[in-house]
Amino acid sequence: MNIEYLKYFAELAKVQHYGKAAKILNISQPGLSHAIKTLEEECGVPLFQREGRNVSLSSYGKELMKDVDDILNAYLRLEERAAGLRTEEKTVRIGTVYPLAAGMVPRMLQKFGATFPFVIYNRLTPEIAEGLMDGKYDIGFCSDLLKSEELEYYPIRESYIAVVVPKGHPLEKRESISLKEVALYPQIMFSKTSGFRNLQEQIFDKEGIKVRPVCTAEEIEVITGLVENGFGISVLPYMDIIRHHNIVAIPVQTSIWKSKFYIARRKYGIRSDQEEAFFQYWRKNRL
């Protein structure tokens, strides 16, 4: 059904006169008559009945009117929302892996001088890749990506493996250290539900070293807190969060792991000028 014809129907039902309704609607009376006749043909029943020079709703028209008000109200809300989308600046939704959320991403936004509204979500890389593809996020910061022709992504920073120790630890002054030396101290590791646990195990396995953690934790915030309070040391990918704790990060001598962080987005999409400029700036620059 034509939404304009439903508006005409509602107005005629209210004023009950073709001439008056046509004037209010700013259309010709024959045009209004044609619209009502079209609606009646679509419904297969008469919607109005004549009462002298006036008209009133038929019993069928009264039934239709019950839904028309709801339809027109919903359509008005839709028009208002669409107008709001046209006038409001687009909020950029950023999905980022945890290592970059607290430090690097805010610094990138600040260095660029971002003035667009944005919201940041902490997610795992597979969740970010999926969110980018289904339109949940506009920009992603990931440690790696599921390969997809729908995405474009570019490296912005490399990471490295470090052992984190509390201030005052015997290893504190070392500039680098071997895994065999690290393994002599109690180890704190990620729990088996964390994607980083496999990484930690691979690092030690490559050197033929077996370690049994003294304790485990799901989140890096908890691990750094345990290290800070003397429960042990931990081999971790270097993350900005380490700088916010009373601990020291010492690069580990290993060649099996090098990680790159990427900025990513869907190849095609509607973007604001600021969002596009931000992505292109970091596509060409690295931290």
From TrEMBL:
GO terms assigned for molecular function: DNA binding; DNA-binding transcription factor activity
UniProt KW keywords: DNA-binding, Transcription, Transcription regulation
Family as reported in the entry's similarity comment: Belongs to the LysR transcriptional regulatory family.
Organism from which the protein derives: Blautia obeum
InterPro entries assigned: HTH-type_LysR_regulators (IPR050950), LysR_HTH_N (IPR000847), LysR_subst-bd (IPR005119), WH-like_DNA-bd_sf (IPR036388), WH_DNA-bd_sf (IPR036390)
Listed name of the protein: HTH-type transcriptional regulator BenM
A Gene Ontology cellular-component term: cytosol
Domain HTH lysR-type: 1-58
Top-level taxon of the source organism: Bacteria
Taxon lineage: Bacteria, Bacillati, Bacillota, Clostridia, Lachnospirales
